[in-house]
Records
---
Amino acid sequence: MDSFPMELQPNLQELKAYTDRKMELAAILRHLYQNLRQEHLTDAAEQAGALSRKLAEDHFTLATIGQFKRGKSSLMNAILGCQLLPTGILPLTSAITVIKYGPTEKLLLTQNDSHWPKELPIKDLIYYVTEKENPSNIKQVSRATVELPLPFLRRGVEFVDTPGVGSAITANSDVTYTFLPQCDAAIFVTGSDNPLTSTELDLLHQAAAYTGKIFFVVNKMDLVPETERPSILNFISKILQQECPAQEIQLFPLSAAVGLAAKSRTDETAYKKSGLKALEDALAAFLAHEQGQVFLSRIIYQGIQLMQQTNQFSEKLISLAQSMSDNPKIAACLSGLSTPAADNKESPLRYTFPKPALIEDLHRRGCPACQYIAKITFDFLAWYQYQLSTQDEIQDHLAQWGGLCSFHTWKLHELSSAYGFSLGYNHTAETMVKKLKQASLHTDSQNVPLTFSQDTTHCFLCQALKAQEALYLQTLCQALQTADLKRFYTRSDGLCLRHLDQLLKIVTTPATKTFLLDHSAKQLEIFVEDMKTFALKHETIHRDLQTENERQAWTYAAIHMAGEKNIWLS
């Protein structure tokens, strides 16, 4: 019999919404981590990093907890539909047993003296997690991981059996309490005989502080006469409502032993009567619909706590938490949160381009205006690629512009790592997806533009560089009124024809225009002569006689005619 009869296929829309929210939370935690690192809050930064790793792993830890000898392992066996975990009168040893998905059945054993787990047959599990075969955990087992090809484990669910608390083996209780922060949800198992001891209530309080969902199981109901069952369940329910006011209290009275036996002989009636089916149906529905929300809620809650402890503030984390404020723990956390007063934010592009250094530029070969634009473009993009991968405001700014033009997109791509570009440009690409989908709904409307690629007119960097280009030429125009600058200009290659055109439009003195035109003609004539000489020596096998100027003339002639190849401004 299928141990999870309500196993459902994931709803793609729900999955997309969950993925979007998870990625949003990942970006928030990344920035929180970076801020904490900058503040030298190493321990807090490590906690933020651990939350990010949990998010990346995207596994859901569902643990069975309770006092020893309440039948936790028996319940897990019943849900799994096989006698996998050892059971008995003696308590198990102080080791966590994790059951997760794997294509084949196997046991991975992690011990305290080794970083690498060793693989063993599943039948050997009993030799490592029972007090009889491993007294006081002399074999130093820290975790036993069982991989099984079960459908309900495929979505990243890790089913965990924790040591029972309250036994004479105090290490068992310590291990369970230490593991609680790693639980996303828990199955709390008490017994129909002597239910809810002070030890159990203490464990329950600790679990409720960490886990987003608790399933309350009352095991061994087959040992109680039917006439006494309602009063026992009523008593347990009242106590739980008093002790766990933030949890939804739903009891699952059952007999794990009867349920497993019913499954083994495929007795549907006995299976339902055992109470196991009701629990499994609730687990199946939870794993199909609520698991992701509980998983994210827990990480958001811990993120807010970390934010409060370190006096950090993330508007986006608060906004995301508010969207999930139906979670009582998040709502309580938000109610006690003080929001800093809003301040006037600067433009996200807090970057200042350097002033032109004309004399230095004129000492270099090629067009000085082109080289200035190429240099400030490189310097800006080197700064921008890091800012884009770490700052929300920069990402939002780029998304609003719709990205950069093709040339500057690829220049940014050259300077970025795959990781940095993926972080920085995904928001822009995501925004474009929304625009494309919106446009697809209105293709018959004349008011909806059907052009989405960016040209220089709509590239914010092109606009900024054009302003710097105009400033450079204006500075050069004024400087050409001095004899010193003219002398330096005469010894240079001068402007390319594109920049010469622009400069001539702002020069007002005829003599300066004549000077610029004569210099350009002279330089280009020199390049022509050097190219002809280079070609002649090349074809007559006199390449050893070529000068450096002749070998470079073809490049500088192209620069003079078309401008530097590393800039793109129309």
---
Amino acid sequence: MRKVCEKITNTMGLEIDLHEKLKEYFGFDNFKGNQEAIIRNVLAGKNTFVLMPTGGGKSLCYQLPALILDGTAIVISPLIALMKNQVDAMRSFSAAEGVAHFLNSSLTKNEILKVKEDILEGKTKLLYVAPESLTKDSNVEFLKKIKISFFAVDEAHCISEWGHDFRTEYRKIRPIVEQIGKAPIIALTATATPKVQHDIQKNLDMLDAEVFKSSFNRPNLYYEVRPKNDPTKDIIKFIKKHEGKSGIIYCLSRKKVEELAEVLCINGIKAAPYHAGMDATTRSANQDKFLMEEVDVIVATIAFGMGIDKPDVRFVIHYDIPKSLEGYYQETGRAGRDGGEGICITYYSYKDIQKLEKFMQGKPIAEQEIGKQLLMETVSYAETSLCRRKVLLHYFGEDFDEDNCGCCDNCLYPKKEFEGKEYILDALTLVSEIKEKFKIEHLVNILIGEADSAIKAYKHDKLEMFGSGAEKSRQFWTMVFRRALISRFIEKDIEQYGVIKITKEGLDFLEHPKEFMLMEDRNFEENEEKIQEKGGVSALDNTLFAILKDLRKKIAKTNNLPPYVIFQDPSLEDMCINYPITIEELANIQGVGTGKAQKYGKEFVEVIKQYVEDNEIERAQDMVVKTVANKSKFKVYIIQNIDRQIDLEDIASAQGLSYEELIKEMEAIVFSGTKLNIDYYINKILDEEQQKEIFDYFMEAQTDNIAEAFDEFEGDYSEEDLRLMRLKFHSKHGN
């Protein structure tokens, strides 16, 4: 039985066990990362700021408190498409249809009346609104009449001009909240640099908010940047290798979206386009096909974005590079949200950067300055030879201490480096010689000796440096100038956009040259086999998994819901490991819970029961409970002291046990079906990304054998670390 210290008191003065509510509503045994602390802060009526990566469980941070607190939580979300998905998902967890609603321009007058009726009757715990809807006078007047538990501002980065998806309506949220009636605010975003974070808090007048920042690392995502040589052919080849898996492809223009979707279809790939220029009906139909798994691939514009909360997207491809690293992180973050496989491939050509630079021309200088800085961060990421994970996390103000993440192209097959000091010196000398008045393309033409009309007009074909770099290609010299840009030796003048100027650092390098390493482009054909596609479903019983997926699709179609709303892949996988044959057992499956088990479980347990009988399967969990239940004589002492968050070494010492013996006792407790929350200890020895990496391994592995786990990680983690993480895993998913 849980201790009283784990309980909170609601507004009615009744004690509530958060873990029980989590299990009841969402089917999870334990919270992820900072979720519990965030929820407690919201329940205490305090302003809360949440920085958490896509797939980290942001939604639960406002969904659970909304279900617990009196009144209705107002969730401000920028994407109408996403609202419907979230409302469907919330309704799937509850027998009451009116528990969640959205209020936006897609509803008819009668539908709006029904929504308001449910809210006034106290049925609705979550109301999703677009910022545009929130500012309507009629909605403001209506919301003044109801009890609001709190406001949740989702995608809060939209508030900041330095964010990747700035929306002016978001800057009006605070005045409207004041008008409706003051209530606590929880602001949530998956992408925010320290500058953006401060901008959000200042605009929402919540500088006093408790800030919860989770690690931005997504260990299950594989990052790769490829040169943009015949990308369409490469994409088709990639998708054919991953047949039947869901993916998103981002393009810069609507025209390219249409063209690429058509080419994919011609090549036998089930794909559909999605962009703001399409009529709303077609766009919505294409989105639904993607969610319902009628098409595997959606092709979308970067500018419009995809408000799709689909947990089993297995790959995200950027046909064109995004305008900022925040945009890139947000878009790649849509892969592998369920903790499974997520492959992120970006095609990079400096010509795309030049196109994006041209789009900025004519905009105010301040806006160009912001755009230029954001773009240079993206170029730096694309060009780097460092671990891509390290570069991304550093951008968000987070250190990644590992030298090799083992899950990006630069770590799996490092670029070959060579001494490039003389090439950089040639580039800087030329910029100085022609008085800092020309663009990179012109400078490269001089070095390779290509006398176009501009070269002749300025008599640059008479320069001593004309043709001095002809032994190298145009691509090579363009790379040299890009590296000089990234290293801040040169910069592009904003008012004469594109003209290259030498910086103070560049002048210092000319006066005092030092070692400077450049990288060769890698051969992707040779290295393709080295890609480690981390994550993915690896259920113990693949035959049953396929049967359950088909059943899920059938039930989803009957209920007109996306399959993942019925049960997500990790839940199906858990069913294939534990073979639940009653509704009660199904309710204990990871991510199921009582509501879902009763709503959708009948056919699943019938199918599993028949399968178990037909194949004479001995169910492992029955045997585990019988053999190890209550084995530990130290059980009560250990549970009590872990509840008090006493260090494990101290617990062992007090009972005269070695550390190894204590872990054995803890294993006996957990394997007998009792939860132990040792997060407080694990957080001291393993950072969040390391924990997620091990957790994902146990989620995907066919066995929890420690020796196999040790071999898989090639000694990166000690046996003790792996055993503690196995305890955490079983506590969360098995008990």
